[in-house]
């Protein structure tokens, strides 16, 4: 494999700290206070009862209150939220900095009611950041809504998703200087779980990460990108358009179609390949919709297909650890399906793609997954789990030590499922037999991961590439 261009390892950023401070003089003080408060918070967001820690928390909370009070007039649309935030902060301090409860301010924050392109929000919450910080520390974020007219029109006319928002970063504290690219209300520390009315994704970070990883992977694998794909990788604005549309349709798809189970699988314990198939189903459906939109002349449709293809093939399989990595498995499945159907080839240390047949093959895999779902409606849960395993194992080789693989019809040492799995007991026993890395990386991906490791690491905290 080729050596990576060192320029690809530079960490680009679109955040101009000086410009943010010039426009919002209180922002640096807010960020500093939040970072100070984080040093004395524990995992659940509370502060240890040591007097020095409590004093640090008091000073930091007072500074946060002062900064939010100063900044709030610049965000009149967030006035009710900021008022509730100040109440929650004062209450938390008055009660001794125990486990935070910011339900009232969370309910007051309703960004989905004002999806206006360019509208800014100032957000402060005790929260964990998905794929970032697992602790419920305080975070402060300056963000901008990304809602261009063409995206709003598609949402209104074709892909109704009133809870979805696409965002761009303006500034953030340490929890977002990570791989986190979402702002979800369910991450906030609250006393009870409310009905959620919105969910937001930072499409600027997704686009920048995609561009960095795809350009490096294409160079390493000597993949010759078509002219339009090369333009997508080189253009942050076009890439952000693509990810906003991809995310909007993907998010909506979770609750559409033939669904044998709760599409979001909330608080369900099941083998992780079910999660892999659900996320992949939503992406494959989005790809199919983008093919339809391309036929109707929507200019963002072709880039959406390319973004899904390259992100799934290049980033998903080699990002994160190998412990039940369901997004990684979905990418492995797509690669293996295309490879075994001769749409993708790795020959002479060069990756080639039959671009004409990509769309038909991706749609065929989509239909295969949809048939699994449709048939699953009539199956008992255990039978559906087994059928899903066999679909994945048909293309992605299981771990040689896998108990589940011994019952698979595609495994060379096949035994009846009843002989290898405890089918007469609770489903927990079946889940316990799943290996952490039930479907390891292929030799192709092992080699790619080693070469791409610095590039993947360099995308931490990324926001844009010029």
Q: Provide the low-confidence segments as ranges.
A: 7-12
Widest beta sheet: strand line-up: 1-2-3-5-4
Strand content: 5-15%
- As a percent range, the share of helical residues equals 40-55%
- Distance N terminus to C terminus? 27 Å
Number of strands: 7
**CA radius of gyration:** 23 Å
Order of helices and strands: HHHHHEEHEEEHHHHHHEEHHHHHH
Domains (count): 2
| Content-based structural category | alpha+beta
Q: For the residues shown, what is the average pLDDT?
A: 94
What does this structure look like?
With 466 residues, the chain is of the alpha+beta class. The chain has two domains: 9-197, no CATH class; 256-458, no CATH class. The protein is built from 18 helices and seven strands. The strands form two sheets. Strands 1-2-3-5-4 form a five-stranded mixed β-sheet. Strands 6-7 form a two-stranded antiparallel sheet. The longest helix has 24 residues, at 272-295. It is globular, with a radius of gyration of 23 Å. The two termini are 27 Å apart.
